[in-house]
Amino acid sequence: MNQPMRVGLTGGIGSGKSTVKKYFDELGVPTIDADEISQRITQPGQPAFNEVVALFGKESLDESGALNRQRLRELIFSVAEMKKKLEAIIHPRVREEIEAFIDQVNYPYCVICIPLLLETGGQATVDRVLVVDAPQELQVQRVSRRDKTSEDQTRRIIHAQISRTERLRAAHDIIVNDGNISYLKIRVGNLHEKYIELSRQKNSHQRIS
Q: Using CB atoms within 10 A of its CB, is residue 82 exposed (0-12), middle (13-18) or buried (19+)?
């Protein structure tokens, strides 16, 4: 069986990656989200949960005994070393699940949504990089409203990520998400057709080789 073409979907916080992923889902494209995996494997009772609590202590928990993700975010952005230790717990497990997912894909291509794709060097593991781009002020508004965080904290998160310029430079494809939903759906549909054709060419080349 031919390996599916891997499309790495990424973008800054609040750019609209989840919305774009949803539109690929609606087209029947196999997708997987690294953030969703991360959330699931750090639920109480999961091995990663115990390791995170051992690393950050009881202050990382909320009143229900689950991880206080807002508090964790504050901790890792104030102590860079803690961020690296947290990633060392989560990232290998996430990569393992993504590879297992890809092995089961029976479709010309798949979409792998990884917010920190470029920050972690993950572009080397995909065939194409699809960047969802949005003006920074719009990112700030979306995240502050969604996560109920201050605009200052949201800006610190944005500045901790790879720069917009670097992200766009690494992209094979770009979707500008400035709030025009109709355009967004059309752009995803056009990329879908493009990826089907590119995957056909890729597999044809592999058979010839």
A: middle
- Residues in contact with 59: Cβ distance below 8 Å, sequence separation at least 6, in sequence order: 71
* Other Cβ atoms closer than 10 A to 53: 17
**Which residues are CB-neighbours of 12 under 8 A, at least 6 positions away?**
133, 134, 136, 139, 158, 161, 164, 167
Helices then strands, counting H and E runs in the chain, come out as 9, 5
Q: Count Cβ atoms below 10 Å from residue 65 Cβ, excluding itself.
A: 10
- CA-to-CA separations, 95 to 45, 78, 110, in angstroms, rounded: 20, 26, 15
Residues 6+ apart with CB under 8 A from 79: none
Residues 6+ apart with CB under 8 A from 95: none
Radius of gyration of the chain (CA): 18
For 33: left if phi > 0, alpha if psi spans -120 to 50, otherwise beta; the answer is: beta
- Per-residue model confidence as pLDDT tens digits over 89-146: 999 999 999 999 999 999 999 999 999 999 889 999 999 999 999 999 999 899 888 8
